[in-house]
## 1
Amino acid sequence: MLRENELAKKVIGLAIEVHKALGPGLLESAYKETLLYKIRESGLSVEKEKPIPLVFEEVKLDCGYRIDLLVENKLVIEIKSVEALNDIHLAQTLTYIKLGNFKLGLLINFNVTLLKNGIKRLIN
């Protein structure tokens, strides 16, 4: 069983493959589906659009929060295809990490020339 950092390294490698093949400029959904395929092909378990409840005063509320991809039930992947990542994207990903009690998340913006410039690691 891979730890979060090992999973992140593997997923980043797969994301780079996807970005090299598709390039920037596509819709977020195209990158999400392609990365989902590559992660599954690599033998890792992954869930798409994983619902995550908000717990408020001991009550689980379904507020429509959904993690783009959840790898091995421990690594949160939030995918974007935007001009630039901003604070709200970071806050969204951190919220998913905290609500799900995960340790690590990757915020990946595919709309960049070099993918390494579009990846942010977020830790809870």
## 2
Amino acid sequence: MASTNFISELRRIFWPIEWHENKKFIPMALMMACILFNFATLRSIKDGFVVTHIGAEAVSFVKTYFVIPSAIIMMLIYAQLCNALNQKSIFYVVTSFFTAFFALFTFVFYPNTDTFHFSTETIDSLILQYPNLQWFIRIIGNWSYVSFYIMAEMWGAMILSLLFWQFANQIVKTDEAKRFYSMFGLIGNVGLLFVAVSFNLLLNDNLKIVPDNVRMIPVLCTTIVSSMLVMLLYYWINKNVLTDKALYDPEAAGGAKRKKKKVKLSLGDSFKMIFTSKYLGLIVILVLSYGISINLVEGIWKSKIKELYPTPELYTMYMGTFQAYQGVTAIFFMLIGSNILRRVSWTTAAIFTPVMILCTGLAFFSFIIFDKSIGLEIAAFLGTGPLALAVMVGMAQNVLSKATKYSLFDSTKEMSYIPLDEEMRTKGKAAVDVIGGRFGKGGGAIIQSTFFLMMPSYSFVEATPFFSSVFFVIVIMWVFAAQGLGREYQKKIGS
């Protein structure tokens, strides 16, 4: 009996999914794996294009002046789609749009950049005439890379943060969420391991599938295939899971009774509802805090990566290695996170992420600020160069921060939507995740781009003391917001 109880407890720790629930859980987890595969692949490629072809400083300008407006436009379109179509149709329309764009970029824009982009001579000439606008000139001159960057950013916001989690919140009950959500991330992060494999295989110098000047085409094709798999899995779940009463009860799933007739609010009423909600406001603070804090660190780290890996292919392959480390670490953290969610309060679980980012951020910023003293000594002791060590420390910070984010931040954030009514879960979530998420990253970009406009002679490294000060203020605010949301969450679930 003791042996049986031990085995059962061990199974609950490493696989808390009941046997009959696998039909529902596994295809959802595979969906997340495909979405995260694309998310990681696109993130690596977009940075490789923009950082190496335009410059690391350009990332802040792209996020501020292009990504944020694009997020607003997409959110407005999504709100209109919510009133015009059902959720199933919206999923297919949005995912098909992204798939079509990736195919257009892969087979039309990317192989013909000489035709679509400004020449180097034209860009240099315009910069001489308008030096204060140099980053905007470089961005517009390489517009297809920037458009790819925007769509890669939007994939994470629209497909992962909005459509997938909205679908999960719709069909998963609160008691299932405590077991499912971290495990979604655990299985999903296996997709990150395949990113490293695909990069090392398809970008290998010995593999001659395509000409050297378009070596990224095979990698880009994997994102198209993965997008199609997402739609295929979504179709299978709707056909085989949502028609099974044992797995999906519309009256119980999502934590609230469904209305027989969907209430449709006008866009103005929707915004009024969203921005007058204290509950959604606290979620927005969490999302903004994560985006700003991680972006302040990433800007400095990516400038160091560019110094070490100056070509798009080398940069992308390094990012693939980073994704592999992140995937393995995230899987480990998912196992821990699933048990934390089941054993501690929502508030305790939610505070883990800002504490991890605060500690690792302190280590990274300290190393950059004191690189001439502590950094040189550590590099000499480890037998490596200061630049390689800076990149390594930045990778460790990002790996640990994102692993905690995927295992606990995402799960606790998504759990907080479950007690809300359907209108708040759809349009409210759209505003928080799409606008909040983009303004989070964009907020860090605005801080950086504004600083560089005011201090054009400064580099990322020289600006580190300023950025680190902002970073610590944001993370402390995040901790207090998580505590406030935790109190509101407990009230809504009635415990």
